[in-house]
Amino acid sequence: MGGGKKKLTLKQMKRRGEKKERKESESKGFTTEKKVVGVVAPDPKSTEVTDQLKKMKVLTPYTVATRFDLRLSVAKSFLKELEKQGVVKFISGSKNTKIYKPAD
Question: Is 20 helix (H, G, I), strand (E, B) or coil?
Answer without folding.
Answer: helix
